[in-house]
Structure formats: C-alpha cells, structure tokens
Amino acid sequence: MRRKGFRRVEALPTPVAARLRWLSEEQEQKDRDLREEIHSAEQKLYNLKDRRGDLLALARRLGDEALTLQDRRGPLYEEVEQYHQRYRDLGRRQAEVRAQRDKARARAEELLSELQRGRERHRESDSRPRPDRLSQEIAQLERRQQTSVMTLKEENALITRIRELRGQLSQAEKAEAVWKMEDQSQQGARDELARARQLADELNGKFEELRGERQKVLDQVKGRLVEIGHLVGEIRARGKARSEALQKADALGLEIRELERSVMGKIQDSRQLNQEARRTLEDHNRAVRGAGHREEEVRHRTAEDNLRTLFQKGKIEL
User: Using CA atoms, how far apart are residues 55 and 188, in angstroms rounded to an integer?
Assistant: First the structure.
C-alpha cells in the first residue's frame, strides 16, 4: 500500500528501453524510508502538540482558579480587618473598665483600712470611763454626802473625789462627743465602702463581659485567618501546578521545534532525492534522444551516399 504523498513513476517510454523508473530501487527504498520517518515524526508532532495544548489549557484553568480564589480572599481580608478593629475597640473599652474597677477596689481597700483603724480606736476607748458611769458614780457620792454622817475628813475626801469625777466627766463628755462624730464618719465610710464594693463588682462584671465578647471576636479572627490560610495554600498549590504545567509546555515546545526542524530536514532530503532522480532521468532521456537523432543522420547519410554512388557508377547491387 502506498502512503499519501509518495510519488513514483513506474515507467517512461524511451527509445532505449520500454520502461524506466522515476527512482532507482535504492533511491526508492531511501525515499520510502524518509517518508516513513516523516510520517512517524508527524504523528509524534501531533501527539506532542496535543499534549502541549492540554498543558496550556490546564495552566489557563489553574490560573483562572487562582484568580477566583484570590477574589474570595479579598473580602475575607476586609472582614478580618473589621474584626481586628472591633477587637482593638473592645480592648480599649476593657482597659477603661479595668482602670475604673481597680480604682473602685483601691477606694474600697482604703475605706476598709480606715474602718479597721476606727474599730481599733473604739476597742481602746472601751477601757476609758464613760460619761454615764461617771454621772452615776457622782450621783451616788452626792447622796451619800447628803444622807450619811461623816467626819470632816471623810467629807472632805468625798468632796475631793466628787470633784475628780466631775473633771473626768467633763473630759469623758468631750471625748464622747468626738466619738459620736467619729461614729457618724465611720458610718459614712461604711456606706461609701458598700457603694465602692458594689461599683467594683459591677465594673468587674462589665469587664468579664467585654473579655468574653473580645474572645469571641478573636475566635472569629482566627477562624477567618485559618480560612485565608487555606485559600493561600490552594492559591500557591495552583500557582505551583501552573508553573510546572508551563515548564512542561515549554519543554514540549522545544521538543516540537527540534522535531519540526528534523521533519523539515527529512522533507528537504526527500525533495532533493527526487530532484536528483529527476535530473538524472532527464539527462538520460536527453542522451537517448540524442542517440536516436544520430542514428537517423547515419541512415540518411548512408542513403545519400548510395544514391550518389548510383548516379556515379550506375547500378548498385544490394
């Protein structure tokens, strides 16, 4: 079976031979081998170009997927930035509440220390004479003076005692007034301490609420960052796969160009072979035609010579 494009002339009519081949057997085999190699190389070229086309299509698809993932990453970054801003705002608010809470706690500690010092002073005052006891003792001594019979010395001693007690009573009443004022101050401190503790508890509750809310925002940030990390990983993977596909396509392109040069060389060899065979055949045909003309000229000259001899010598025996 002859392949498409394979050219061959079986025979040409010439005066010398009945049929001549376009190519010699050796040239024909060489031409057939060249065309077999060209056909095989062309099939390989088709396969290589198909593979290169598939790789380029894969690279385009991977590039489009990477761009799609990149488009998804942008809004996530914006969302993360919003969460970060919310996280920072909550942090500032939390710091303010912490400062207020610590201030309320410090005031409560200060008031508690003040009340403790007041209680210690009250315990110390318990050993001092109280005005009511002194008044009671003075009244008893005065009744005794009025109802009892005493010597002058005993009466003078009783009067001296009454005077001492009255002096102590005056000091005790002044001290009692001071303690009453201090008790009122202590009650105010106790009320303020209760308010400071309540405020500290409220602020601490607010602080814990802000901390929980801030932790939720942080968890959302982490979740988005994990999602972004996955997207970045997928983008990088597709970028790497695209780069590898392009590298393979470039390598196939070099192989295709080398094979195309080889095919063109073989085609040129086949053309040159046929051209050389054609020139050889044409030279042969010209030589054959030249030989035919010379034989005709010989026959023509022979006839003329015979005719000339006949005219000159008479009858010619053949």
Answer: 87
pLDDT classification of 136: cutoffs 50, 70, 90: confident
pLDDT band at 316 (very low <50, low <70, confident <90, very high): very low
From the list 19, 6, 33, 27, the residue with the least C-alpha distance to 278 is 27
Which tokens is 157 given? 């001693």
> Distance from first CA to last CA of the chain, Å, rounded?
58
Cα–Cα distance list, 227 to 66, 179, 214, 232 (Å): 15, 70, 20, 9
Q: Residue 166 corresponds to which tokens in the numbers above?
A: 């009255």
Which residue stretches of the chain are H helix? 25-125, 131-147, 152-313
In sequence order, the 6+-apart residues with CB closer than 8 A to the CB of 146 are none
Mean pLDDT, rounded, for 21-42 = 76
pLDDT-derived band at 63, boundaries 50, 70, 90:
very high
Q: Please, how many CA atoms are within 13 Å of residue 259, restricted to the half-sphere of its CB? A: 19
Whether the pLDDT of residue 98 is over 70: the answer is: yes
Q: How far is CA 170 from the centre of its chain?
A: 88
Nearest to 189 by CA among 101, 115, 293: 115
Distance CA 268, CA 6 (A): 14
Contact 283, 14 (CB under 8 A): no
* pLDDT tens-digit readout, 194-218: 898 999 999 999 999 999 999 999 9
| Residue (of 314, 309, 249) closest to 63 by Cα position | 249
Distance, in Å, from the CA atom of 134 to the CA atom of 130, rounded to the nearest integer, reads: 6
* CA–CA dist 153, 137 (Å, integer): 20
Q: In degrees rounded to 5, what are phi and psi of residue 129?
A: -65, 140
Give the closest residue to 175 by CA, choosing from 217, 212, 130. Answer: 130
- Residue 95, pLDDT score: 94
